[in-house]
Specification:
The structure holds three protein chains of three kinds. Chain A contains twelve helices and no strands. The longest helix of chain A has 37 residues. Chain A starts with 13 loop residues before the first helix and ends with a helix. In chain B, the strands form two sheets. In chain B, strands 6-7-8-3-9-10-12-11 form an eight-stranded mixed sheet, sandwiched between helices. In chain B, helix 4 packs across helix 5, helix 5 crosses helix 7 and helix 7 runs parallel beside helix 8. Chain B starts with 6 loop residues before the first strand and ends with a helix. The longest helix of chain C has 18 residues. Helices cover 29% and strands 18% of the residues of chain C. Chain C is an alpha/beta fold. Chain C is built from eleven helices and twelve strands. The chains are: A mainly alpha, B alpha/beta, C alpha/beta.
Chain lengths: 290, 344, 336
Amino acid sequence: MGTAIATSEEPYPLARIGRALVGRNWSERVGIAGLLAFVLAALFAPLLTPYDPIALDLAVGLQPPSLAHPFGTDQLGRDILTRVIFGARIDLQIGAIGVAVPLVIGVLVGLVAAYYGRWTDAIISRIIDVVIAFPFLVLVIAIVAMLGPGLINLYIAVTLVSWVLYARIVRGETLALKARPFVMSARGFGFSDLRIMFRHILPNAVAPAFVFGMSDFVLDVQLGATLSFFGLGVQAPTPEWGLMIAESRNLMLTAPWAVVFPGLAIIALSFFVSLVGDALADNVRGIDAG
Amino acid sequence: MPARDRLTVEDLRVSFARGSLEAVRGVSLTIAPGEAYGLVGESGSGKSLTCRAILGLTPPGAAVSGRITYGTTSLLDVGEEEMERLRGSRIAMIFQDPMASLNPVLTVGEAIAQIVRSHAPMDRAAARRRAVEMMERVGIREAAKRADAYPHQFSGGMRQRILIAMALSARPSLLLADEPTTALDVIVQAEILRLLDRLRREERMSMLFVSHNLAVVANICERVGVMYAGELVEEGPTREVLLDPRMPYTAGLIASMPGPRASGRLRSIAGAPPALHESAGGCRFAPRCPLADDDCRQQRIPLIDVGTHRQARCIRSERVSAMAAPVEPSARPERLASMEQDGA
Amino acid sequence: MVPEPILVAEGVTKSYGSGDALRVFGKRKLASRPALINASLSLMAGETLGIVGESGSGKSTLARNLALLERPDAGKVIFKGEDLTKLPESALRRCRRRIQIIYQDPYVSLNPRMRVGDAIGEVLHVHHLVPRDRITARVRQLLDQVGLPSAAAGRYPADFSGGQRQRICFARALAAEPDVLIADEPVSALDVSIQAQIVNLLMDLRDQLGVAVIFIGHDLELVDFVAPRIAVMLGGMIVEMLPPQTSLDMAKHPYTRALLAAVPSLQARPSVAGEPIAELAGGFPLSGCPFWDRCPYRYDPRCEKETPPLVDVGGGHLLASFYVHSGMAGVSALHT
């Protein structure tokens, strides 16, 4: 009867996530390890350093890297390593929330638009087209300028602009899936629209959105740094990498460590997240091929 | 008249992933000059790869070994440059999906002319004339006008005709056809088969026709080879193989096709073909074979002669005729009769 | 008392317009020939009807419209006496499960991220077909009915071969306890040796459950094997309907005979000679008989202008052809 069934890996259970953390090749492992390092550092920040990221100590200002201060100190005597570690909290948060909120909104909007089609899709698509027409950075800055500086306003601005990218991705996937027989079968069984959208279409449409989310994470971190650099994001004395670079930019020649280390942190985090994103992309392609 | 050469394939092996996935396991066959040979098998049988290996068109990552000789040329040893010269001029190939083989930004006339000029020096006007001539030969009406059309403006069957025109434009002596009619509708398929048959005879070409459809092959090929799980399991003159199969798999295939006298249930073959990486000791069909016994499962079964120019990879071939439903002897008299007139 | 047919299509017509954009602005351009034109047929409970057609014949469109997965532009679909085209979507949802479709490609007919058991169980759950605690047992029973082990329930579709996936599709369709099963080219994507298995399975299930079956295919011989009554479709229309007990040799429509002659067959069919039929160059003609530009017998001036009506030529044998109706030559003339 031909009942030999192959065993495959199941798409989403916890065991798979566990195996995924170990990684399949070096680039994956490096990415995961690096990202994990940042996350752990952010979580356990107070335990990792004896210094207070905000406290001033002008006596030890502008010290080059040493045993006591591995990254040196800035002009206000604050330990840069400590500020970088605490800064990770902010920047990771920016990346995470900057991706999570637009992703949820965008995925839902894209799904609904493509599923119901006609007027719903026509209207939503036009809105997406309009928002996408503007350069991302310009729009975000404009909104932040209107709302005023600060982290919350940054999140609002990023959300208002980024959701369209996710919506577009998921809309495309949903349109393609709608034509697939298994979705038609679901309709043929008389399943409700809600069930079809969330049980049948969404799980199959959402993967590319997550993959995109990884590169979006990197963009958002850099966006946060950029805005803070211009004084539109996080405000002093909160440690944030972009802000740290801004505050010390005049010291490039005299105390480069104040600028270099926060910069390296941005680059390193971006790099690790990109590696993880690539791994995720390869993974996703594998599932859908089966 | 192009030179008439014999194609000999000896112990062809194609494997992937450093030998762990063997897709073609030691296939040997011969196609005499002017002969039409049908290679039949289901998916995973290795028939397509066998065909592609002849022209060196296996996918990247495929390890090919064995000997393939065409005339005096050893195809597996020849360099890429020489191979490119061979392709089209001595051996041509047509594929299943014509859309994928036709450059969408070239008009069909240009596409054919390009091929013509790559094999024989001539000016553009002469090449175009030849292209139109080829299009007429393959049955495209108003060829001169249609030569300026793009591939997407033609239907599937027309595109396949164009592909055939391209393949034949340099007058090859061997045509490899890899499932050329599988994607076509029934009536169109019949037309294309008729066309191929006619052209083959007119050009005195030999042809290797790969298909999963035994009936299609039966109508156009004088000899047929049946492949299963990477091996050739039966071979012989088409008529004889169909009327009197000697390998249970062939018999099973024939029996599972509905015909006007079938009733009740189709005689199906239980189970499914083995996966590429499985290497059982004995006959690869044994798990599904109603005649299999321990001998079958334990020893490697070679191809055994069961008649003149007939072989079957089965040690129980005498018992096969008892299990199969016989095919009506007067199978397509006009087709087979005409084949025998000019046949090899 | 004459039994009522379980499913009737009356004059079902369906076109695919040029997309939503045109409709948004209120204009609807009739771009090309409709995919389905005035299709009418009736199916009795427990009967098997075959539909044969090549690509573009409208057979899949008919399947979708019979199951009301699309709404016909015109015509009625009457199921157990009720006109489904008049029902709103919410009411339709309740009776949807009674008409099930099995699709051609088993590789895209199952949700890749849903376990087999869950997919089958979902049907049982949503329609409350069995009490909650009996769902697992019923799933196992259905898997068994299609020849799969109960272990299959915990696996994902990717673990199965094409033939096995098609079996899963059957199990899922049967879970809905349908009255009508529409099999749209159910074996065309499968290997020949597996095709026979699945066809046999379909016939077994049909006999066991008494479900009415519409078997759609392009392989005339296969459809003839499965179905006693056969409708031949071309260009969105039914051009011939062969009643039970009629062998394929007795087909009269020039297209059907061309189809018969073209089928590569291991068996002989000496009574049908092959007349070369020109190729479908670019879509069907916009008016008249869908076969007129290729038909070797288009002597009647009406062929080009009017659509021949489907007429009973005796014993339930329906035919749409001006040539044959006009009696210009008897059936014997079709044997060249």
